[in-house]
Amino acid sequence: LEPKDLQEINDNDEIDRIEIVGDIPNISSEYMNLVLYDTPGPNNARNKTHREHTRKMIHSDKKPMILYVMDITQLATTDDRNLLLEISNEIKKTGNLSKDRFLFVINKVDDLKLDQDGAIEELLAEAKKYLEVFGIENPQLFLVSAEFAKLIRLQNQNKKLTHKQRKNLRKHDLFLDYMKLDEYAPLTHSIKKELFKQLKDAQGNSYVEALYHTGIPTLEMYINEYLYKYALPIKINRAIRDIEKILEEKGLETEEFIYLCS
Prior knowledge:
This protein is mostly helical. It is built from 12 helices and 3 strands; from the N terminus they run ααβααβαβααααααα. α5 links the parallel β2 and β3 (140-143). α6 (146-156) runs antiparallel to α10 (206-213).
């Protein structure tokens, strides 16, 4: 799909859902498929149905991971505050699982003037302070530049870039010198180890190095680890419950079934 195609679809009030299938770097589909729902933001939803869908995902019993994309230049809007209160209540209600499944992502970081010492730390502190107002403490907070990561990947795939895109690529030195956004992400030891390995392999290719510093690969790695830590066990337990229910209906004992299968 081209951007103009998506725009035509978005302008069509008779279409309320678009399905796009494809691979996501750094996220394995060996044991499960990742399904992403791009819900309308609280300030962009065209009707109540869109807003309700967003809230339904927050409170779903399936506990899907939520990427809450924050606009650091437009914090404290009414709809934003209401949605954050719902997220805060959900975290308090369900504990660590919900804390891990809510990721707060600050995008377009490269649009801000952060090429000075301490500027990124100040941005993180501002975002954390804002979330603490709603009782969201120690959030899983990621700084990213999705657009720049896309440009580098398009170049690596030998895709034709516009003049503006080629011009924007020239600022990749910014990520090598100042904006190493991956260093500010809340990563586990295993992700840090894998990231270090991939950065080492990328040495000599400044664009690939800059890609990792956009924060997007780091975010993808975090999501992949979450899937294996929470989503896969939940999926297995759900399958076991379904099997047990079928066995009960057939009048078979679970132990007998396990013995026969082994």
